[in-house]
Each structure stands twice: as structure tokens, then as C-alpha cells.
Predict the 3D structure of the following.
Amino acid sequence: MKQKFIPGIYNYCDRWCERCTFTTRCRNFESTSKLSSDELDINNKAFWDNISNNFKKAIELLHKAAKEYGIDLSKPMTKEEEEDHDRKRSFIKNTATNHQLSKLCKQYQEIVMPFFKDEISKELVEKTEALVSSLHMGITSEEVAVHTMAGLGDCEEIIRWYLFFIDAKLQRALHGKIEGEDWEEDNGFQKDSDGSAKIAIIAIERSINAWVKLYELMPASEDVALKSLSILSQLKKKSLEEFPKAMEFTRPGFDN
């Protein structure tokens, strides 16, 4: 009998459930899609009760896994161990934050955010007016006009969705690599850093395609489009250099 849920499929997806064909096989989607409006409202007690219950379940699973591997979680850390742990976390965070990939992500965000905040509405209005004018003069068909506007909307949605997602996934990949993943390799598991880098690279590629299409449909976006494409190309290149085996990572469900 085919297993309903694909284990870990939600760990290396792009979190865009509305566009995913695997929602019926994702345990994470099933658990969140059944939440009430109160449980989705951060200002509601039901929201925090649900978070608390999830933490309890996570702790139970953690203790179960620790027991299987002979790890005693009840043993408290010494002061020296705590200080050593804090130093390591601080080092990892600072190293990842100052990494070239992180800096490129910030550059990309600084270029794109003002464009979507201040300029794209004006550009879309001008593009719409031009299409309407062409439609009235018989230069453009209604089908082409509708297709063009739908394409522009899709490009904007894709770029917005991945704008911060790319940085978040690369940060996770960098943290994992810096911290070291010997345990995964020693026990025959794929590296989480490669999986995180892979979905980040996929998001970069989709963003590149969206910018190319946006530029084709809206030539007035040339300045921001070309700058964005330049940074995204660098991001892809540097990500593949930093994580050379990322694209070999098999994402549960998506790649098998």
C-alpha cells in the first residue's frame, strides 16, 4: 500500500502551498490547513495554545530520538559547556551573516524592495494604458492584452515570494556547513546544507526567469531588471561554488 505522506517533503520545498501538487501528501500542509481562523490569528489565545502543543509534540519526538541514539537529554550542561556553546553559535551566526552570499542577498533586496514599493504600480498603470490604447486601435488583440497582464502579475508574484526566501534558505545552508555535518555523512544521510542550498538555487533560477519575462513585457523596468539579474546570476554561481553537491541532493517527493 502506498504511503500517504512523503516523509520530510516539507523540509526542502519553497513553502508555496498554493502552487504545490504535493499538498495531499504533505503532513505539514494537512496539519496547518485544518487550523481554525482563531488558531491562525497571532493575537488569539488559540494560536498560542496550538504553538504550545506543537512544541510539546516536538519535545516528545526529540526525547524519543535521543533515547534511540543513546543521548541523555536530562543531563544539564556545565557552565563551561554553555559558554562554549554560546561562542560557537555566535561564531556561526557572524560568519554566515558576513558571508558573500548573505551580502549578495541583501544587495538584491535593497534593489527590489524600493521598486515594488514605489515604482511598479506606476509602471503597471502605464503598461495597462498602452495595452488598452493598442487594443482600441486594433494593434493588440484582447487575448494578447489579457495574457500580457496575467504574465506581469505572475512575474511580480514570483519575485516577491522568493525575495526573502532565498536569503533564509542560504542562511540555513551556511549555518549547517559552518557548524559541520559529519554526523549526517557518517550515518549515510544527505547533508541538510545541500538540500537547503538546492531549493535556494531553484528559487534563484525561478526569480531569474521571472525578471527576464518582466523585462520583456515591461521594457521600462530595464534598470532594476538588469541589476537584479546581475546579482541573481552571481548568487547562483557563488551558491554552486559554495555547495558543489547541492543539485545532486534528492528532495523527498520532488526529485524521486
